[in-house]
Write a structure and sequence with these properties.
Distance between the termini: 93 Å
Shape: rod-shaped
Helix content: over 70%
Strand content: under 5%
Number of helices: 11
Oligomer: single chain
Length: 297
Amino acid sequence: MAYAIILVGIAVTFALGRTPVERRTDLDTYYATTPFIAEMIVLYLAGHLAAVSVTAVSALRWARQVHGWLRAGLITLGVGSLCGAGYSVTKFAAVIARWSGRDWTQLGTTVSPVAAGLGAVLTVVGVLIPLTGPRLTQWRQARRTYAGLEPLEHELAELLTRRALRLPRPRWSSPATRLVWRQTSIHNALGHLDAFFDQALYERTLETAARTTSDPEQAEATAWAAVVAAAVAEERRHDAEEQDADPHLAPADDPDRLPDRAPGTALLVPIADALTRSPLVAAARVRTGTTEGSTRA
């Protein structure tokens, strides 16, 4: 309501005053002593100063109660509003100097536009930060997860190609889309390998890993990595020999099969990391290779 009154006052005083000379940059100081136009100048500067001051105080006060991208946006918005207040203050100073007979026109024509421009940019950025920040975080997390899954996809790459289990790689797509593509490929391969998962190997590796780490998730990931590496080798041998029945293949109703047919999505990155770092996985590969060589002999 108060701001509406100020707007009406600006319109009325401008209509009552006379501005015969066009002044695009220094209207405030040029007409600072002109009847009615002087009042209009005071009204619009006071209204602008009040608006940006309230915005700055509210934004900075609210920023103390929130976190993350919203906090960053509110702080930026508050600083931008303070810069906008700098515009009004410098204009006011130039006008008051004109009333006192001094010429501070340069203050209103050089400093004020810089403050206004900087304030406008920061205000826009402050509004955009909470809108774009979470999406940038999601993209960054998707890129990190996508890169973290690369060792696991590489482990399964030959199987994915040979069994045509992988969709074409998406091009010119978002990190989230590429991540879904890689996760889907991995799950397709794990779903094909679930019949080759060795519960005994899983339990042995889990027990050994649990003794070397205090992180249950890491131990579980290491056990799954060993099982996946062994299953890849076993499936490759089984396919190469083209057997109708494999003595190492557990039937669907075998009580020794793993209770989980495949690891969950949240465990895929730790499994990928264990594939490249864990000596237990390397040992499982060696044992599987030795068994494969003995079987062929």
